[in-house]
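Handoff note, outgoing to incoming analyst
You'll be picking up this chain. Sequence as last confirmed:
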Amino acid sequence: MAALVRPREGRMIGGVCAALARRFGTSATTMRVIFLVSCLLPGPQFLLYLALWVLLPGESRAKANAAW
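Most recent structure output, in case you need it:
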């Protein structure tokens, strides 16, 4: 499994779905569809997306931290 970082390429808004897709070995489109379908269910999906957007490091920042 790949590290959970928001990639620079393949992102649409924040890169959260692209990061999760890369982590679990699916396509970003599949992950986006899963997210949109999950929004039909009650729950804090948008808050979770925003939290992951803030908490997940960007790909360039994660590489810079790995160099330390």
